[in-house]
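Page 42, continued from yesterday. The earlier attempt failed because a stray header line got pasted into the input along with the sequence. Redoing it now with the clean sequence only.
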Amino acid sequence: MEAARQIGVELTVASEQASTLEAANPAGLLTLDFEQPDRAADAVRVFATQYPIAGVVGVDDRTAVVAAAIATKLRLRGNPVHAAIAASDKHVQREQLARAAVPIPRFMLHSLDEDPAAIAKSITYPCVLKPVRLSASRGVIRADNPPSFLAAHGRLRAILADPETAAACGDRARHYLIEEFIPGYEVALEGLVVDRRLHVLALFDKPDPLDGPFFEETIYVTPSTVPGGLQAAIKDCADRAVRAIGITDGPIHAELRYNENGPWLIELAARPIGGRCSAVLRFGDKGISLEEIILRQALGMAIPSLQRERLAAGVMMIPIPGAGTLREVRGVAEAKRVPLVEDVQITAHPGERLIPFPEGSRYPGFIFARGETPAAVETALREAHSRLTFVIA
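This time it went through. C-alpha cells are written below.
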C-alpha cells in the first residue's frame, strides 16, 4: 500500500473475508473466494467494469494463484495459472523440476492414511517430511531413523488436522512429501521475472545452519559471500527452475542449498520474500522498495533500477523463544542502539500465544541492519538480538 502511494496509483485490496469498511470504500476493498480462483477472477471481471483494473499482484502462495487467474481472465501481466499452482504445490513443483532435470532432492508423495510404520521401514535416512502446501517451514521435520520418522509423522498429522490449516491446504491436507535431506549451506534468492527472463535482485546467505530437526530461519545477509563461480551456478539453477515451472512475470523467492555436488533447488515460490523481510532490500540511488518494483512491473511502468544498494544489509527473523503467552519484550531500546542496527520491530503483541516450530510459523519480530560488510551486519544483528528478553507465561 505504501509503494502504491509512492508511485501514485490507486489500490484495491482483496481479501477472503469482508471488511467492515467495504461498503464505505467500494473501490478500495473487495472480498473474493480464494478457494475458487476462477470464481474470484469472474468477480474481479465484473468489478472491473465499474472500477478498471490495470494490474494484479498476489502477496503469498495462496493469493499468487488467485492473481494468476485474475491476470488470465482480464488479460493483465502475470503468470499462467498452472505455473502459480506449481509454485504453491510442492509435489507438482517437484515433478516438473524433475522432468526438466533441475537438481532437486529425491521425493515421494504419501497419504496420511497409509501405515507410517511400514513407510518408516522402507525409506532411506536422513529424510525430511513436509506438508504439500504450507510455507515458512511450518510442519517441515527431519527424521534420521524409524522412531524419529514416526514421531515426525505424528506431529505433521496433528498440524494438518487443524481446521484452519486443512482449509489452507485444500485437497492436499491428507498428503505429505518425504524428501531426501540435502546437506550443505543454504542461500535464498530474490528475483523478478520480466517477460520470462529472471533478473536476480539479491542473493542472501543464511549463516545459521539449517540441519533440523526443524527448520526455523533466522538471519539473511546480502550480498552473499559465496564464491562468484558458485553464485553463477546457483543463479542458473534458479533460472532453470523458473523456466521449468513456467513462470513468466512477477516476483520469485527461491531457497537453494549447495555442497560438493553443486546447487540444489529446495523451494521456489511465485511471490516475494515473506513477512517484513523485504524492508532489507533497497534499489537504485533513491532506495526504492521491492514492493515498488513489483507494482511497477505488474503495471508495465518503467523501473528505475534493479541494482541493489551498495551497502551490505541483513535481517534477523527473531527466533521464537519458547511456547507460551507473551507478557512483554524487554531491551528493545537497547537493541536499537547497537551500531549498524536500523530498526527492531516486535510484531507479536502482549497476550499473544507463541508457538515454536514446526507447529508455529509466526516470528515474534524482525531486526534490520546495514553496514559496509556482510560480516559486520551479521555481528550487529546477533548483538541486537542478545539484548532482547522475551517474558513468556
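Notes: The chain has a mean pLDDT of 95.
Reminder to self: strip header lines before submitting.
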